[in-house]
Amino acid sequence: MNFAGTFKISTPSDTEIQISRDFAAPRELVFDAFTQPELLKRWLSGPPGWSFVVCEVDLRVGGAYRFVWRGPDGTEMGLGGVHREIARPERVVSTQLYDQDWTGGEAIGTLLLTEKDGVTRSTNTIRYQSKEARDGALASGMDQGMAAGYDRLEELLPALQVEDRS
Predict the structure, then answer these.
(1) What share of the chain is helix, strand, coil (3-state, %, to 5)?
(2) I need a labelling partner for 144 at 20 to 30 A (CA). Which of 17, 27, 43, 44 fits?
(3) SS3 label, residue 44
(4) Which secondary-structure segment (H or E) carries 43?
(5) DSSP string, 120-134
(6) For the whole model, what pTM was predicted?
(7) Digit-coded pLDDT (tens) for 110-166
(8) What's the number of CA atoms in the CB half-sphere (13 Å) around residue 166?
(9) Residue 7 and residue 37: Cα distance in Å, rounded?
(10) pLDDT tens digit string along 25-76?
(11) Which residue windows are coiled coil (predicted)?
């Protein structure tokens, strides 16, 4: 079953972007895919031609994470933050700040996972410091990059369900 058509991006307020997508997998597995470096490396690889060169996650309240992607011309894009709230397997709240700070300062991301009949919906709400920052993020093409990443995650989840991950 393919849920690519469930990818939605909206603007619930002047400072927020909300991205949602359904996955045919248990919520615990989707939570792991969003929070464990060895799984993130398998789907959050960035736009075509880019590589995921740094993926560090200290999954605890107050723990930091850092992601760095490298483009075909050597350009790097880094993102990091601190986890403010973790409620496994349903919610993670974290700060996020790009190295180039193209979004006008620190944003707050809230990942919410809900499951019904074996389908997990991820809802990621990002609150920026201003409408201009939100609009800048929207204009960056983030929707296309996130949709491609979520497609890769959907392809990965069936394999994870059969792997021995103990």
Answers:
(1) 30, 40, 30
(2) 27
(3) coil
(4) helix 37-43
(5) EEEEEEEE-SSHHHH
(6) 0.92
(7) 999 999 999 999 999 999 999 999 998 898 888 888 888 999 999 999 999 888 665
(8) 1
(9) 23
(10) 999 999 999 999 999 999 998 878 889 999 999 999 999 999 999 999 999 9
(11) none
Contact 29, 122 (CB under 8 A): no
The residue with tokens 């201003």 is: 130
Q: Give the amino acid at 82.
A: V
Which of 78, 8, 80, 70 is closest to 45 using CA atoms?
70
Structural contact between residues 4 and 23, judged by C-beta atoms closer than 8 angstroms: no
Structure tokens at 21: 């997508």
Question: Identity (one letter) of the amino acid at 55?
Answer: C
Q: How far is CA 26 from CA 16, 57, 99, 157, 162, in A?
A: 27, 22, 33, 9, 13
Torsion angle (degrees, nearest 10) of CA 100, 103, 121, 60:
60
